[in-house]
Amino acid sequence: MKQQLLVIGAGFGGLWSALSAARLLDMHSRNDVEITLLAPQAELRIRPRFYEPDVHSMFAPLTELFEAVGVRFVKGTAESIDEQSRKVGYRDETGRAGELSYDRLVLASGSQLSRPPVPGLKEYAFDVDQIESAAHLESHLMSLRNQPANRARNTVVIAGGGFTGIETATEMPARLRAVLGEDQDVRVIIVDRGERIGAVMGDGIRPSIIEASDSLGIEWITGATVSAVDANGVTLADGRHIESHTVIWTVGFRASALTEQLTAQRDGQGRLHVDGNLKVRGLQNVFAAGDVAYAATDDIGNFAAMSCQHAISLGRHAGNNAAADLLGVAPTQYRQPKYVTCLDLGAWGAVYTEGWDRQLKLVKAEAKELKTQINTVWIYPPAADRRSALAAADPLIPVA
């Protein structure tokens, strides 16, 4: 009977885990291990692009790729993990319960937007966290043209001035005018708890954020939080009310709730503490990749962020090492010392930095060209060609 290597999740971490495991088995000419990937869809959803229009197209099908590299796909949503029996319970698209056994598990079930108990948030706010919710926002934006012209219709409020909030906000003036007309006076407001514009992004990026915001007419309300959302806008903690028919929540992300089913240490975002080989600390048969892994990127105190930049490399190492554990061969230690940031700033351009201290390297058109390359080419999966796909999954490939 074949040993079972199970990957949960078809995001960046899960996809690259499966490919990397298949690569190692191929290198050692082993056919006594079966790789299974469990996910709701056989597609890589390009989450970093969900702030853009035409979000329904932001995915890449994976069926042919899985067939090319010998990965078995099971369509379903994982619901439970039993460490003792080494079984994962799931439900398929019809709601029928199923179960998968594993000898090694790679948990790569991703993260979700945090939704605190803010009154009206669930009923009235939009988000760009998942393709379905981003598509719901897009449909709403298209429907604005059918509403009477007024301040609330023409105003978008973004709750959160982090990476997602800024990219969503800077894209929004063009999206609104495409729907309402180029002559419309549109208003985009970012509400952020930071005391300074773009404070969370650091000094290297903040001047570009300020310049882009001024150029695009984006307003910032800093040192503020949203205390309630209603059909006509938001109320801030200081009592101010902003009229808006479009409120977008982008504040905070948390690892998949599946991490809570494991008897392992987690960080404040629910991510599992892993060792240098991405094995979950304290567990013998479980590895973690992507947004569920709290992994050191270097020896000076930096840890992987919830980003595709880190998820791809984490997946390459986690899949490789889970397979190596079964084959009895040496693992590869995860290290990713190079860190870059490329922030889209809408029609103004973009800003690109290197290092955890975000040293400015490119701005405006040059950075925008790089951002477009990243978003439309680099983060997409390889072609469904066995040889090239497996080669691309080498954990020693540097990822910037």
TrEMBL record:
Gene Ontology terms, MF aspect: NADH dehydrogenase activity
Any single Pfam family the record assigns to this protein: Pyr_redox_2
EC number, as in UniProt: 1.6.-.-
Residue intervals of the FAD/NAD(P)-binding domain: 4-312
InterPro entries: FAD/NAD-bd_sf, FAD/NAD-binding_dom, NDH-2
Class in the EC hierarchy, top level: oxidoreductase
UniProt superkingdom: Bacteria
Keywords: FAD, Flavoprotein, NAD, Oxidoreductase
Keyword Heme found: no
UniProt-listed SUPFAM superfamilies: FAD/NAD(P)-binding domain
Family (UniProt): Belongs to the NADH dehydrogenase family.
Protein name: NADH dehydrogenase-like protein Rv1812c/MT1860
Organism: Pseudomonas knackmussii (strain DSM 6978 / CCUG 54928 / LMG 23759 / B13)
